[in-house]
Amino acid sequence: MSDVKKLQFGDLNYNYNQVKVGDKDAQSELILNVYYTTEKMVIYRTKGNLVITYSAYANRFSILNAKKQEINNLLQYKINQEQKNNSEKTLEDLRVFYAPQLAHAYQMCYLEEYEEAILIAENIKKSIENSIISKAQYTYFSYYLKYILYVFGVTALFLLWNSLKIAEKNAIPNWFVWHIYIAVAGIIGSFISAKEKVANRTIDFNIPTKRTILDVKLRVLLGGLFGILTVWLVYSKVLMGFLEGQINTNLFGSGNVAFSQKITVLLIGIIGGFSERLVPDTLQAKLNDIPNKKDTNEEVKKIAKAVNEAKKKN
């Protein structure tokens, strides 16, 4: 974001208040902005770079070195993110945008207001991070919405095709059609869940775009699967509690089912897709209820021993 350089505009007595826009520095770079000047130092911007030139007090600026590197890393990540989304922004554009704020931080360092300088740098860093996270969330939900629209499109075509089959009295079985409905409900639930989780995510520089796309595809797939499994668990009375008895046995058959019952089943599918742990935790709990063969044998031995001892006493 910036390069702290000891440029020699003149000797140690040179008055940096003389520096102005349009001058060239010691590297023959054109000065485009001058943010702060004193007799001993100047903060200015060349094309895409913030430069601090001084003839004294060099130690005052060292406190910002680590923050400057963090900001540079974030800007590089941000521009890579923008370019992946076909943005015309360049790294130079971002550096120019944040240059006045970082110049102010260096000015505070020169004035020995170090806490204020660190606070300004932290605010710059936070601003870039929030921009990166917002863009990542937008990208994630764009992929999610795209795949959900694919699912809805395929489902609509299937239902249209099935309606033609109904007219021909050769329709797909009702239980299969309802599993399609439930899977779609589960996918909707997974989308709601993803919205809640992604809102709390932090930046991870190690996750590439392909990993994000894979995560979206898995969420869509698992949302539909968990929606179906949740309905099965309720239907088979494995999952009890407030869901017990909520599914009419006619639902997957040919009998009449009330509209409220159909809505209830779809809501259960949404719950299954929304709660990523509901199905796995239920299955794990049922596995834990299965008695261990070794433990069972030990219990039998203890009972037999107690019975034998009671017989001897008698």
Question: Sheet bearing the most strands, described?
Answer: 4 strands, mixed
The arrangement of helices and strands along the chain is: EEEEHHHHHHHH
End-to-end C-alpha gap = 92 Å
Mass-distribution shape? elongated
Number of strands: 4
Low-confidence stretches: 1-7
Write a structural description.
The protein is of the alpha+beta class and 314 residues long. The protein folds into two domains: 131 residues, no CATH class; 121 residues, no CATH class. It contains eight helices and four strands. A four-stranded mixed β-sheet has the order 1-4-3-2, covered by helices on one side. Helix 3 crosses helix 5 and helix 4 packs across helix 6.
Can you give keywords for this protein?
elongated, alpha+beta, 314 residues, four-stranded mixed sheet
Summarize the structure in short.
The protein is an alpha+beta fold.
Topology (SSEs and partners):
Layout: E1 2-4, E2 33-37, E3 41-46, E4 49-54, H1 65-84, H2 91-110, H3 114-167, H4 174-198, H5 209-235, H6 259-274, H7 278-289, H8 293-313
Parallel strand pairs: 1-4
Antiparallel strand pairs: 2-3, 3-4
Helix pairs in contact: 1-3, 2-3, 3-4, 3-5, 4-5, 4-6, 5-6
